[in-house]
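Researcher: I'd like a candidate sequence for this fold, 300 residues long. If you have to choose between options at a position, lean toward the conservative one.
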């Protein structure tokens, strides 16, 4: 019975015409298309790196201010495979607070094949696109305390492209090789961040919106319980704890189960696009996790 139910759920998800796409569209239903203007020439940074013109490349990659908003950020293309002219697009936001010490967090959207610009504009970047295609500030952007590196990955996703169909990744090795090449180049342009802590989101921390019907919290928990992994024994014994942001909060933000460095978080009142639904809870979660603050409520 459980098996049959599970199959029904999985096939519903698989048969949904592109769940992420559908969500994306429904979030943007009322957005008009931007006026077609001159968007300029794409910036390819690899030739600058190879010519040792790091400073020049860096200056060119600085993104100009948007009306009313002036957040320092850098964007451009990194060539990851010359044979096929494959290029990955990145957009980097140094942390607003103490960027010299802040961890660098690489954001890779799900999918695979979802553009990380979705994370930037919809989930936790500093900008939100309004219904008339202007930008406004987001409350609780992750870029406040973390240097966020958004990469459209793998090649073919979002702005990232290749000139040859052979340039598309066909396995995880291809994905890793291209991404690794982009990261090596990125840290050549921004060497001052090389020694900072570096996080690839999605590897250690697992989180679910409690109301997520695409990847349900209960199913995540079930697979964590059933899987054989390094922390299995400790995880199974770990107590599920209540997490509140502040001591004085009447509302519970979510629930935590921790096994060593591994944290599993269920966030109340959120669905699949969690930071969009619960910006403050998502912001608190990533900060507690990355800065190792534990899950006790703050006094206040
Ligand atoms: C370019 O891509 C091809 C096909 O995936 C691969 O065989 C080759 O090693 C890649 N070259 C580099 C420099 O990564
Ligand atoms: C639309 O754009 C104008 C500026 O051109 C701005 O003042 C207004 O608040 C925007 N509307 C929305 C819903 O953000």
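Model: Candidate sequence:
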């Amino acid at each position: 019975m459980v098996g049959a139910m599970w199959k029904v759920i999985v096939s519903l998800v698989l048969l949904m015409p592109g769940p992420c796409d559908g969500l994306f569209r429904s979030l943007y239903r009322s957005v008009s298309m931007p006026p077609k203007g001159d968007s300029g020439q794409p910036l390819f940074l690899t030739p600058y790196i190879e010519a040792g013109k790091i400073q020049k490349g860096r200056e060119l990659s600085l993104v100009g201010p948007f009306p009313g908003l002036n957040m320092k950020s850098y964007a451009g293309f990194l060539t990851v495979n010359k044979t096929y002219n494959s290029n990955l697009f990145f957009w980097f936001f140094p942390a607003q607070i103490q960027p010299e010490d802040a961890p660098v967090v690489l954001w890779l959207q799900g999918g695979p094949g979802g553009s990380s610009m979705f994370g930037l504009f919809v989930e936790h970047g500093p900008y939100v696109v309004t219904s008339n295609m202007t930008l406004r500030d987001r409350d609780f952007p992750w870029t406040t305390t973390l240097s966020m590196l958004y990469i459209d990955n793998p090649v073919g996703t979002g702005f990232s492209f290749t000139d040859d169909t052979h340039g598309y990744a066909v396995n995880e090795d291809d994905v890793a090789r291209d991404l690794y090449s982009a990261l090596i180049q990125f840290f050549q342009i921004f060497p001052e961040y090389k020694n900072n802590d570096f996080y690839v989101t999605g590897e250690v921390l697992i989180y679910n919106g409690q109301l997520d019907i695409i990847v349900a919290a209960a199913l995540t928990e079930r697979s964590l319980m059933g899987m054989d992994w390094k922390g299995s024994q400790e995880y199974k014994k770990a107590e599920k704890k209540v997490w509140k942001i502040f001591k004085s909060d009447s509302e519970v933000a979510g629930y935590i189960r921790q096994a060593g460095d591994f944290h599993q978080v269920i966030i109340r009142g959120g669905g699949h696009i969690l930071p969009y639904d619960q910006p403050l809870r998502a912001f608190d979660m990533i900060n507690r996790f990355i800065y190792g603050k534990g899950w006790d409520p703050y006094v206040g």
